[in-house]
Request: fold
Amino acid sequence: MEEFFRQNYLILTYSTEILATLTGIICYKKYKFSNAKYFIWFLAYLVICEFLGGYTRFVRDDRFLNFLKGSLIEKNYWWSTLYWKVGAIMFFAFYYRKIIRTKSFSEILKYVSYSFFAFSMIYILWHWQEFFVSFFPILSVLGSIVVFLCSVFYFIEVLQSDNILTFYKSLNFYISAAIFIWWLIITPIVFYDNYSAYEVDVYVRDWDYIELRKLIYLSANIFMYSTFTFALIFCKPQLKND
Reply:
């Protein structure tokens, strides 16, 4: 089983992402009058960004993007940082401000997310050269704090309301649980991202860790996107005026 996961890492990852997105598109009519429509848009955004980020596979001597070899964007560290480590965090802050009704929670998320975005842009500009050749663990850690705040505020609000009786029918509950667990698993790994690297090259030293890291990411991704797929099918939409 472990060997199967290794050999089909990309296929399994993309398949679960695309499955969740297609499920959202098919169920879009059910959610189009609720805030969940923004989440479906986000899933589509992730698939598109993942597809575009795969350009590095064509930056080789025998591929059509060979002219990018030796350029700043030869690797896709910059792209992953922008669309996931910053963009995804800003989306979750936006989304939870839409679904959380407690004004103080919403205000905290607004200022925390704006501060995170401002810090990210300043940090990237200050470390401009590293932006293209490595990840920034500090952005991952700060981003995970924003996500944890979003999830915790949502859970507190549910516990304090009548929704606790029907929480298992809420799409937002499954989204919150999935992203909370995903970031909880992945955040400690980001400190080793620069050491291990994604691509196979002469600078990679610990192959055992590389394989372990892939399995952890794959397991976390399958769990998260499978949860999204199940929730989109199973749950009822919560309309904005409910």
In short: Residues 207-234 form the longest helix (28 residues). The chain is about 70% helix and 0% strand. The radius of gyration is 19 Å.
